[in-house]
């Protein structure tokens, strides 16, 4: 198991910040299915005491990102093909819906901001997909929907999907993925207001990652 890069925190609002820092690490695919986590190691990485980490972990267990095993160890849920298929179906349904709402409300400035995200210098190894940019693009796009109902649901799905994303990027085929091709298609459709093309690009983007796991 590689050691994820988790940013150290400001001492103010520790409980909230610890949770969001760990949640973001899960969402970006920093943890793999079956990983066993240590509260002490997480606390050391974050530069905080055990208490806020313990509270954040309880929330992550409740949200399905972690499981508390009978031996009292914390583990990322192992890979399960049926669960992966359910996540795929849920993501396609909810993200397609929120994209439709976002296209009704998005502004030219917000489209420019999405383009700027795709033009950022790549983070991480050149041979692997840029998960930080991928996450930023999707979340920034979906926030344009202003949906108070759908956004938390999508964030919960990405939290559970993150461990599978870790598996995907470590497959040999990951280096052959043209990672932003569908993002560019979505961006082009946003500029012309073509919902059909935007939806097709989103479906292709979501589906291709799951095909690595459940062909």
Give a verbal description of the structure.
With 215 residues, the protein is mainly α. 63% of the residues lie in helices and 3% in strands. It is built from nine helices and three strands; from the N terminus they run αβααββαααααα. Strands 1-3-2 form a three-stranded antiparallel beta sheet. α7 packs across α9. The model has no long low-confidence stretch (mean pLDDT 88).
Distance between the termini: 25 Å
- Low confidence ranges: none
Provide the residue-averaged pLDDT: 88
Q: How helix-rich are the residues, as a percent range? A: 55-70%
What structural category arises from helix and sheet content?
Answer: mainly alpha
Strand order of the largest sheet: 1-3-2
Fraction in beta strands: under 5%
Give a short account of the largest sheet. 3 strands, antiparallel
Instruction: Provide the succession of SSEs.
Output: HEHHEEHHHHHH
DSSP helical segment count: 9
Radius of gyration: 18 Å
The outline comes out as globular
Number of strands: 3
Structure summary:
The protein has helices at 14-27, 39-46, 50-62, 81-105, 108-118, 131-143, 150-169, 181-192, 195-213; strands spanning 36-37, 67-68, 74-75. By secondary structure, it is mainly alpha-helical.
Layout of strands and helices, then pairs:
Layout: H1 14-27, E1 36-37, H2 39-46, H3 50-62, E2 67-68, E3 74-75, H4 81-105, H5 108-118, H6 131-143, H7 150-169, H8 181-192, H9 195-213
Antiparallel strand pairs: 1-3, 2-3
């Amino acid at each position: 198991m590689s050691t994820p890069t988790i940013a150290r925190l400001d001492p103010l609002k520790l409980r909230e910040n610890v949770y969001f820092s760990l949640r973001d690490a899960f969402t970006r695919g920093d943890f793999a299915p079956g990983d066993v986590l240590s509260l002490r190691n997480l606390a050391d990485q974050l530069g905080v005491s055990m208490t806020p980490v313990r509270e954040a972990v309880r929330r992550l267990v409740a949200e399905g990102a972690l499981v508390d095993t009978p031996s009292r160890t914390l583990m990322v849920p192992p890979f399960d093909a049926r669960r992966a298929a359910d996540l795929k179906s849920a993501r396609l349904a909810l993200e397609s819906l929120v994209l439709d709402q976002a296209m009704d409300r998005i502004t030219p400035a917000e489209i420019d901001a999405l383009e700027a995200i795709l033009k950022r210098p790549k983070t991480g190894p050149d041979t692997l997909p840029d998960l930080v940019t991928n996450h930023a693009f999707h979340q920034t796009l979906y926030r344009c929907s202003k949906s108070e109902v759908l956004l938390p649901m999508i964030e919960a799905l990405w939290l559970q999907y993150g461990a599978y994303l870790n598996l995907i990027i470590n497959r040999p085929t990951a280096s052959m993925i043209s990672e932003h091709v569908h993002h560019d298609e979505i961006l082009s459709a946003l500029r012309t207001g073509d919902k059909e093309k935007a939806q097709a690009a989103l479906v292709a983007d979501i589906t291709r990652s799951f095909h690595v796991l459940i062909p």
